Automatic annotation (TrEMBL), chain B:
Segments forming a coiled coil: none
Cell compartment(s), UniProt: Cell membrane
Transmembrane segments: 36-54, 74-101, 113-133, 218-239, 251-276
Protein name per Swiss-Prot or TrEMBL: Amino acid ABC transporter permease
Membrane topology classification: Multi-pass membrane protein
Start and end residues of each ABC transmembrane type-1 domain: 77-270
Domain of life: Bacteria
Chain residue ranges for the region called Disordered: 1-25
Length: 263, 288
């Protein structure tokens, strides 16, 4: 296994994950993950609680460091620089620059409560990309209209419903024009009647050709939107393939057991 | 209003203990007899105390009025005010730096911060002040200049009070930073915001909600605490009235002069704190 150089990835993969291991103390949470995600495709990750889904997602934008293996996004190694046969850890400034190309949407939104909706969305373009404020505001207004919240620009997050907050969080992630969007259970903290409005926004992005990895328990959404469904258990990928295969004709016993519980 | 009578209201179930057909019973709150009685007693005691204070000639209210706004007292008050402001600003600036050191990933900075806080919290401010006042005995010259010329009593007061204040401010700020939800930092990191921007724009504004109440406490404590500089002959509010009563022996009325000013300023500060707290609570009010 060798890590790629920027020129030599050679595939049309937007994300390459190779033999990634990660432990928290004695607990090995990721036990050798291999995964490729092609540009423009939607990958849905399923799996029981504690199987390492969030941890995997967090390693992709280096919120969590890997112990072994490597991850590349758009042909660039995440968190490391390769020289010869060594991977050198990048300085924080460089990691931050890489993160601006990867959007992350959290289960509990993590909007900045002291900033208005508009300020939440323009913060990163201005501070991390150095965009002029005027351009950032114009772009943010377009994004808010796209997620159906144009009239909420001046509101504070706590004045919005959970579904509206998550849509703002999606707009905030999109404001950096990322190459890749990561969603960690974007609808799990929502009341059932609000799940649909958030999934609709994500579906719309999928149709627009955004590359996405979505951790979710919404099987219906996976069936409708996913190009690839990945089933994880105990830190390994047990099974992956098109939704019609993994969801309807699972080969592995563990996948079948899981699906029979959530369906 | 005929439209209203047409609406068929569901009949209200009657609470037990009455007859159907009666009007819906009115709600009568519990009578707080004890509270009223207590209020009357407290007011009587206060009035009694006030009368005795006003009537007792030993308080010499005339003398109090005479000195309350003299130049010397006002100059002392002015010094107390700006000394407090300067010590608060410098103390919190240094304290914030120490808090950030303490929470940084850098072991050396953590140790420096911990050591500083340990040292300056474990000795009385009086001792620290006297130490800085006599530092000339240890280092007669600093960078070729006589220490005595370099460090006037007022400079010693600013340095001594600030270094002490910073140790407490550091813990207040650290507590505030820790009160900010971890997800906020992760969101900021995943958006590519740098460490300085994260601190200033995301973490500190949210930390302010838990920093302001203890900081208000410290401000009021510092205002009164500056009176300790009277022992190194800095002419603050307390020292100014002391100078007068050493001359006139009107000890009580002059202490009352100082007291009235301290009370007036702390009252203003308490009101100010209310508005500052309201400012930093923005975005947290309102319902979903
Ligand atoms: N920072 C951490 N320190 C220690 N253990 C952790 C940490 N983060 C995660 N874990 C542990 O790693 C395991 C996998 O966690 P992870 O959050 O990736 O699971 P998950 O598949 O996302 O589960 P869920 O569906 O409940 O979100 C869990 O046992 C969790 O307790
Ligand atoms: Mg998770």
């Amino acid at each position: 296994m060798s890590a790629p150089t920027k020129e030599a990835t050679g595939s049309d993969a937007m994300v390459e994950i190779r033999s990634v291991h990660k432990s928290f103390g004695p607990l090995e949470v990721l036990r050798g993950i291999d995964l490729s995600v092609r540009a423009g495709e939607v990958t849905v990750v399923l799996g029981p609680s504690g199987s390492g889904k969030s941890t995997l997602l967090r390693t992709i934008n280096h919120l969590e460091k890997v112990d072994q293996g490597w991850i590349s996004v758009d042909g660039t190694l995440v968190g490391y620089r390769r020289s010869g046969n060594k991977l050198y850890e990048l300085r924080e400034r460089e990691v931050l620059r890489q993160r601006t190309r990867i959007g992350f949407v959290f289960q509990n939104f993590n909007l900045f409560p002291h900033l208005t909706v508009l300020e939440n969305v323009i913060e990163a373009p201005i501070a991390a990309l150095g965009r002029p404020r005027k351009d950032a505001v114009a772009a943010a207004e377009k994004l808010l209209a796209r997620v159906g919240l144009a009239e909420k620009a001046g509101a504070y997050p706590k004045q919005l419903s959970g579904g509206q907050q998550q849509r703002v969080a999606i707009a905030r992630a999109l404001a950096l024009e990322p190459k890749l969007l990561l969603f960690d259970e974007p609808t799990s903290a929502l009341d059932p009647e609000l799940v649909g409005e958030v999934l609709d926004v994500i579906k719309d992005l999928a149709r627009g050709g955004t590359t996405m990895i979505v951790v979710t328990h919404e099987i219906g959404f996976a069936r409708e939107v996913a190009d690839t469904v990945v089933f994880m258990d105990e830190g390994r990928i047990v099974e992956q393939g098109p939704p019609a295969d993994v969801l309807d004709r699972p080969v592995q016993e563990r996948t079948r057991a899981f699906l029979s519980k959530v369906l | 209003m005929s439209a209203q009578t047409e609406i068929h209201a569901p009949s209200l179930p009657f609470p037990p203990g009455g007859n159907a057909g009666e009007e819906t019973p009115r709600i009568v709150p519990v009578r707080r007899t004890g509270q009223w009685a207590a209020a009357v007693v407290v007011l009587l005691l206060l009035a009694g105390a006030l009368v005795s204070v006003v009537r007792n000639d030993a308080f010499q209210w005339g003398v109090v009025g005479e000195y309350l706004t003299t130049d010397a007292v006002l100059r002392g008050l002015g010094l107390t005010l700006w000394l407090t402001a300067l010590v608060m600003v410098l103390g919190f600036a240094l304290g914030t730096l120490l808090a950030v050191f303490r929470l940084s990933g850098n072991r050396v900075l953590q140790a420096v911060s911990w050591g500083y806080i340990w040292l300056f919290r474990s000795t009385p401010i009086l001792v620290q002040l006297l130490f800085w006042f006599n530092i000339g005995a240890l280092y007669p010259q600093i960078l070729g200049v006589d220490t005595v010329n370099l460090l006037s009593p007022i400079t010693v007061a600013v340095i001594g009070l600030t270094l002490h204040e910073a140790a407490y401010a550091a813990e207040v700020v650290r507590g505030g930073i820790l009160s900010v939800e971890r997800g906020q930092l992760e969101a900021a990191q995943s958006l590519g915001l740098g460490p300085w921007r994260r601190l200033r724009r995301i973490v500190l504004p949210q930390a302010m909600r838990s920093i302001v109440p203890p900081a208000g406490n410290m401000l009021i404590g510092t205002l009164k605490g500056t009176s300790i500089v009277s022992i190194i002959a800095v002419q603050d509010l307390l020292y100014s009235v002391q100078l007068v009563y050493h001359r006139t022996y009107e000890v009580i009325p002059l202490l009352l002069v100082a007291t009235l000013w301290y009370v007036a300023v702390t009252s203003l500060l308490s009101i100010g704190q209310y508005y500052v707290e309201r400012h930093y609570a923005r975005g947290t009010a309102g319902t979903r």
